[in-house]
Amino acid sequence: MSSLTSLDGLAATPPRAASGTRLAVRRFLHNRLAVVGLGVVVFFVLFCFVGPLVYSTDQTHTLLQQVNQSPSGAHWLGTDAVGHDELGRLMYGGKVSLIVGLSAGVLATVIGTLWGAAAGYAGGWIDAVMMRVVDAGIAIPALFILLVVSAITTPDLTGLVLILGLISWLVPSRLVRAETLTLKNRDFVLTLRAIGGSHGRAIVRHILPNSVSTVIVAATFQIADAILLVAYVSYLGLGVQPPATDWGGMLSTGMTAAYSGHWWLIVPPGLAIILVVWAFNAIGDGLRDAFDVRGRA
Description:
The chain is 72% helix and 0% strand. By secondary structure, the protein is an all-alpha fold. Pfam families: BPD_transp_1, OppC_N.
């Protein structure tokens, strides 16, 4: 038992793990686009979650006395067709988009990580069957599935997170499976199995900890994809229902007023979606380069 515990400790914390992490952090910080992306994400998180505490607005009731007002000192980004302050709406909608995107991205990554690790470690016909399920799922566009489900039912925030998570885990599962196929043949895993360690211990204590870089990179891309999918569905009117909204819903509502010259109803949410999605993709690229051993000098 003592030798097994010792082996677990060695595999879970391989030599030079701390120095490897510091090197990855330095490499990430030297990637200017990734650092800018991180700054953009931090800005929008503060803007959407702390902003309403500073800039308080009514986003529930209809205020007909101030509909479609252009940007001014009273309303920095103007108002929409029902009198809601557009800056406050941008904060409120951004909170929904970020919560759904982050939650769905993490859920998809967790499901994909467990599925891919199990498939890669099991190998043989189990791996073949599990990955054929993944291939079949990837063949169906995620947006199509989301539209069908949204047309059948009216999802709330929890429903959107579950739907997005259950249709977005396929790509992470393939990435983690590929990593697992390499790791399961390493000496520390083979030694664990030789002294009687269980398959579950091998996966939880060795495979998953050593796949953390792949998992983190996959999560950032999944969050960006989830935010985009929410925007697509909400733009088509099948997302969260009023008075709740997100950036995609704001775009959908603002498009009808854009022909009247009310640009402030579509430019801010459109830019917010572009910037946040780009930021998460930039962070993902930076993390991938930081953890890429082949790129290290």
